[in-house]
Amino acid sequence: MERTPEPDHPIHDLIHKRWSPLAFADQAVSDADLRSVLEAARWAPSCFNDQPWRFIVARREQPDEYARLLSCLVEKNQSWAKSAPVLMLSVAHLDFAKTGKPNRHALHDVGLAAAQLCLQATALGLSAHQMAGFSQDRARELYAIPDRFEPVAAIALGYAGDPNQLPDDLRARDRAPRTRLPQAQLVFSGTWDHPLE
């Protein structure tokens, strides 16, 4: 099921088609496709080319690992993400590797890597759904994530599935129109809150 928005200005087809489903099909993601989306993330731009992103990956074919990562998600996200064939956690290195000084751009750069992952997934006919609803503390404990590395987001990856498999509240959310705030509320020129003309 594709849910394409109506943009106010032309955008690339991959951006137009990208969305975050809650329903995933019971179809495995090939190793080649998984490596491809991770490779797209690897080639994201970053401050000083520091590449502060790390990804922890669990596939349904490895039930113990999959259950471990799934257990990091909040209960509501577990209820639908458990149908995705791949789960991931993005993690940010909060210090520059070369200097050891704090990298205040690390979370931004991890977001760029995740965005490229999502677009590559879309190009391959896959979907990715990023989640804030997970326990950073549990992830840190279960995966021995070192100090100065911060778990950023959980990601479900797979093929979009039938929303009818979802509970009523999630089904409505999955079928809701995709919307965004208008540029006038987001893009300024001259002074704060003055829309770009």
Automatic annotation (TrEMBL):
It comes from the Bacteria. Keywords: Oxidoreductase. CDD domains: TdsD-like (cd02138). InterPro entries: Nitroreductase (IPR029479), Nitroreductase-like (IPR000415). Residues 15-159 form the Nitroreductase domain. The keyword Transmembrane helix does not apply. GO terms for molecular function: oxidoreductase activity. PANTHER family: NAD(P)H NITROREDUCTASE YDGI-RELATED (PTHR43673), NADH DEHYDROGENASE_NAD(P)H NITROREDUCTASE XCC3605-RELATED (PTHR43673:SF10). Belongs to the nitroreductase family. This is Nitroreductase. It comes from Enhygromyxa salina.
